[in-house]
Please model this.
Amino acid sequence: MQTTLAGHSALGAQPQTRSRRHALDNLTIALFLAPALVVFLTFVIYPIVRSVYYSLFNWKGFGPAVDFVGLHNYVGILSDEVFLKAAGNGFLIVALSLTLQLPLSLALALMVGRDLPGRAFFRTIFFMPYVISEVITAITWLGLYNPDPDRGFINALLVLIPGVKAVSWLGNTSTVMACLFVVLTWKYFGLHMLLYLAGLQNIPAEIEEAARIDGANRRQLLTYITLPLLGGTIRTTVYLSVVGSLQQFILVWIMTKGGPVNASEMMATYMYRFAFVRFSLGYGCAVALVMFLICLAFSLVYQRLARQPDYLGAI
Amino acid sequence: MATTYTHPSSTWRKNLPRFWQYFILSVCVVLIVVPLVILIFGSLKTRGEMYSRPYTLPIPPRWENYGKILGMASFWTMLRNSFLVMLGATSGVVLICSLAAFVFARTDFRGKGLAFNLLTVGIMFPINVAILPVYLVLRQMGLINNLWGIILVQVAFQLSGNILILRGFFAAVPVELQDAAYIDGCTAFDFFWRILLPLARPALSAVAALTMVVSWNDLLVPLVVIDKDVLWTLPLGTMQFQGQYGMDLNLVAAFVTLSAVPAVLFYIFAERQIVSGLTAGALKG
Model:
């Protein structure tokens, strides 16, 4: 199913020249586009532009913003150790995702492959956490990580080993990020695996067949045929993973609130705290814009750098 | 899935490594399922059993936990709110995106590139980044404590990706069909409504299924938009319930399990649509 859709999308918008002759009149075009433009401009673009203005003020959110402070908020953010810690944590999650989570998903996708009996079952199970909400995921894992072995399953298993004591997984600055990363992996590896599976599905079996006839062994097949042909999918998952990791919020907020002592602070929890707990809305807007610029910069650079020849398009 | 390939020359590797493949995959299945199983077990115990034997099978199962949750009027209110938001967001996304995608796939006009780039720039930044700016605008518009506030924001942030998916699909419908329709006297709207949309039903249901999941699970937007408890959605209510009844872990477990049921059921029935929506969207972007 997904192959059909993806295949269709790959055709892109080629028939424009021909449809020109029964072009819609401008009024119809405007009417068709209007809802999307109105909603998008009002609830996506306008807020962001507006917050550029607010970010220049020391504003508590009541009445008009009058206390103009220029770029002071931005200076404050970039010199706040907590924010730098939050940004660092974001990049830590990015690094862990790229080095552990994606390879794991890819390995599992290759294992399930195209023809493993039971493929649909594994896919259904592995993808299930993605469909379960972040709230439920967070509450479930809060229970598992509970420091009391009578309440937290992980510690219950741990204390079975003689001489090992229960660990306060989320209450310890040195373990908290790793624990959150485990939860993120639990929830999101299925998505990446699903995308890899779809990518594998798009690789014509004939190519691998041909390579095998030419005497390629399994490793060569993987490095010279399968992985290059999965390139587009891998680039997509890297992109999703980076943007997703940088802006994690709900899981972290429910599980640790960024603690203990800011050890698991993320940029989004930092922003939320300033905006919705301390009501420093001007400052919060500045944080939002810094996050926004980081995501945008990454997107633009990545799209420029990662544009590679589309092997399958040439077939 | 639709196509299965068999590699005749690969039978040599089919026996021994297969065992390891299944072994590793089964370990992963266990790791995925155990947290959920513990949750469900917990939801079927009394508060005392939760402490005395927390990880054993819930025998006898205490269904009364579920009874308690289902007997709370607030649970049904949350369910209704979540449902209304999901319905609104999904119809909004399907309608607005298909109109826009039709224009981008099938017409040519000055400023098309600009409009397209503008509307699809949204795939570059998620709602988490923009939630405060969005909140300020909603407040300005008086949409705080209003389900419409949630719906509109969810629609706005789902537009970009779904326009991309649908445009790809619409563009693949043969032009000859459009020619034939126009010769037969169709207007542009007729063609869109009577021919294109029915043909695009798989793509539309993929977009709808995906939006439903995203909207149903969304916590962030309700969290900042709603503070009246009669307007809580299910994720928001789940979070509040956990805060309030933190001591009654069995009740929290029952609540969480019940609030997961709709999503899981929906996933089981609409897996194909969700999956095709996700893959089409991601492979496009």
